[in-house]
Fold:
Amino acid sequence: MTPKAPVSAFANIIFSTGVPFRFADSPALAIFVHLARPAYTPPSAKLITGPLLDRAHAQMENSMSAFMDNQPIASLVSDGWTSMRNDHMVNFVAVFPLKTARPVFVKAIATDDISQTGVNIAAELDRAIVAIEVSKVGSVVTDNAACMKSAWKILEQRYPGLICNGCAAHAVNLLIKDVCKLEVFANALERAGDVTSFVKDRNALTKRFERIQDTLLADGEISSKRAFVLRGGYTMLANTALFHDLKVTPGSRVKKAVFVDAITDATFWSNLQSMEATLRPTCSIIGKFEGDTCCLSDVYRLFLELRAHWSTSDELTELLLDRWAFIHTESMGFAYFLDPTTRAGEGMFEDDLYDNAHLLQEFVLVKKQISSNVEAVRTELANFVDAMKNPSDKAKFFIEQCATPMTYWHQVGSTKFPILCAVSRIMFSVPTSQAASQRVWIIYDFILTKRRNRLSPAKVTKLVQLYMNADLSSRGSLVSVMMGQESDAGESDDETKT
Structure:
């Protein structure tokens, strides 16, 4: 063991757990170390935030490069954020197919005064692709902003066959907003806001309402009829002496009347219950899209299921189709078609099935150049469709038992349909959301506390990278965020002194 090893190991405790730097200078730690090993002196906070941080970050980048070299394919996920210092940051995270490895935080940059145009965004994404390795990056996932879509076009021209998609969870959130703008729901939400604010603005009413809710809901229970429970709670609150004896000003008297009018209006509660029933499926859909095991084919499948759920309403169906057109890319059609459980794309939206055939051939022959034999590609497509449409009982049972689409492609498709298997490896590696990238900002909030607001974006990024990439060999999701709001104190956080 080298003399530097204990020093680096001690610093890594700080970096990998996110504990405050002041821990290193704590008198309590000094007493413990003196009792345990009087001859040992741990590094100071100043040393940890300076040379030791730089050294650990360099070692982490070497480990990250070695780790990435062993991954056959990755997706680049990116998201933006504004810190408490008002620094606009953009992060880049490498995500791997279906949790074969946990996401890796590649880098983050402060955009400073650089305008977020399609050209500039494409340039930053391109640099991140090169940092991972061009041949390994199969897809890019960002939000659905117009400037992002402009950047996609630039990248798709530069790297033919690169899949560029928007965050499906973001698209469903936008769909929810669209639904909430419908007149019947918008009026109900406005009145619900008046009801909620009347109670929330009065501490005594808030506490009494919380106690009433505790009697209506078992501990930890989430009611599937939330509007019904709220109605009962507010009605009970309005019948309390506390509510009747509430001192009101001329202005708040009007608000009290609005509150009473709303909670006694059966139509108001009926509209809320209708909205709750309408939007309930979207909540589970967002959860699935943000999960680490959701396949790209699930985006197509779940939009189809939602259309079926809303089929009795022309208004809702129109909103859904508009958002589907907003989020839909050819890769989603490819994934749905190649998912063996869909029987070669059964039930695809309108003309998608027809468009999918020639677009998939173009992807194989021109964009990715997986094969140059047109006849072989067409024959394999025809054989795949036939196998999916008319499976034997044994094949049908096997497909039903497959945990993921890639289970089928690894075990059967790779030998029966090798060209389409190469496409499937790409399609089923594409994340369905930016969730991995958005979780980075949770770590930033944990690291960049109010006491640490003098740290530069570059130093904060180093700390976040070390914290998140502490164990690149482990599997699973991103590191769990510690509970509590630690704050850092002392001069060690003033970067002008480190």
Q: What stands out?
A: The CA atoms of residues 296 and 332 lie 6 Å apart. The first strand starts at residue 74 and ends at 82. The chain is about 60% helix and 5% strand. Residues 45-69 form the longest helix (25 residues).
